[in-house]
Amino acid sequence: MGPKKKVAKKKKLEEESKGSEEQEQIGGQESDGVEEKRRKKKDQKRGQHKYIGAHVSISGGIWKAVDDCLAMGGRSFALFLGSQRSWQRPPLNSAAAEKFQKACSENGFDPVHILPHGSYLMNCGSPKQDVFEKSQALLVDELCRCTALGLCHFNLHPGASLGSITMEQCLEKIAEAINHAHQQTPAVVTVLENMCGQGSTVGGQFSELRGIIDRVRDQSRVGVCLDTCHAFAAGYDLSAAGGVKSVLDEFDQVVGLSYLRAVHLNDSKGKLGCHLDRHEDVGRGQIGLQAFRDIVNEPRLDNIPLILETPGRPGFEYPEQIELLYSLCKD
């Protein structure tokens, strides 16, 4: 073999060796990636009756909310159905609604695990007649959007008296708005969120939620979303040993667990009974990680959406918090 052929052969062998090493590295990376996916899948299989997710964006198209949820490893999600800055919103595009329903169907999302969130502009308990009427109309619009999207639940903050009407009068107005919206729309369940008891807001105490439910004519179309931060800030001690069980027992006695349709999983920056709506990342606040461990292992919270609304921080955003919560599941 001549010198030139020897050099060429040596070069070819070096290239083949280098290619083999690169393939091994790629193969190793792929193996690591597969292993990571398997571990995450194992965690989610371990929590197979828990539907943990987060509030996702509808930027770029409402159907993209599904992709956002999948990307973070969620099995449920919450979303807004329109702008939060205006009472008047353009109608929901029918093509967008069809794409949303198709995305949900193709990716196995049951409507019962999707929780649209109401506009913060709404105050169905407002003593100001113009605000009450606009809130009532917006509630009708929101339920109509749910129907068009094939969704069955709609979550809202009940409202506030603004200090100028009694609690009873405020409860009456909230129920009036819900009854009106139910007359205008079919099937969708209006889900009341418990509040932290700040100012004149209604719903900080379970008895106030029950007071609204008692005034709703079709009680098959009303439910509750239990926000952990709000409950803690209102004085329900989820952080105590056995606190999750105790709070759920009290909820069952006052409201009834049959009305519990969802949970917002938020730790609290504020202390017990502070009446401040300050969400913190899971396990990083005053409620603490043990309470969330108890939540994801509580059978009474099976098969309902468990939604994160936490602020997030570098390295501990929604995907990491969802992964953590699934890792806490015992089976």
Question: Would you kindly provide a written description of the structure presented here, covering whatever features stand out?
Answer:
- This protein is α/β, with parallel strands linked by helices and 331 residues long.
- The chain has helices at residues 3-46, 64-71, 94-106, 129-149, 167-184, 206-215, 228-233, 243-254, 289-296, 318-327; strands at residues 51-55, 76-80, 114-117, 153-156, 159-160, 189-193, 201-202, 222-227, 260-265, 267-268, 279-280, 305-308.
- The chain has one domain (50-327): Divalent-metal-dependent TIM barrel enzymes (TIM Barrel), CATH 3.20.20.150.
- It has ten helices and twelve strands.
- The strands form three sheets. The chain has an eight-stranded parallel β-sheet with strand order 3-2-1-12-9-8-6-4. A two-stranded antiparallel sheet has the order 5-7. The chain has a two-stranded antiparallel ribbon with strand order 10-11.
- α4 (129-149) packs across α5 and α5 packs across α6 (206-215).
At a glance:
The chain is of the alpha/beta class. It has one domain (50-327): Divalent-metal-dependent TIM barrel enzymes (TIM Barrel, Alpha-Beta Barrel).
* Name of the level-1 CATH class: Alpha Beta
**What kind of assembly state do the chains in view correspond to?**
single chain
Tell me the total number of β-strands: 12
Net shape: globular
CATH-defined architecture: Alpha-Beta Barrel
Strand content is 5-15%
**What is the domain total for the residues?**
1
Q: Give the spatial strand order of the biggest sheet.
A: 3-2-1-12-9-8-6-4
Structural class: alpha/beta
Give the % helix.
40-55%
Let me know the CATH homologous superfamily: Divalent-metal-dependent TIM barrel enzymes
Low-confidence stretches: 3-10, 12-31
- Average pLDDT level: 90
Q: Kindly, what is the distance between the CA atoms of the first and last residues, rounded to a whole number of angstroms? A: 67 Å
Series of secondary-structure elements, N-terminal to C-terminal: HEHEHEHEEHEEHEHHEEEHEH
- Main sheet makeup: 8 strands, parallel
Q: What value does the Rg take, in angstroms?
A: 25 Å
Examine the coordinates and then state which fold CATH places here, giving the name of the CATH topology: TIM Barrel
Number of helices: 10
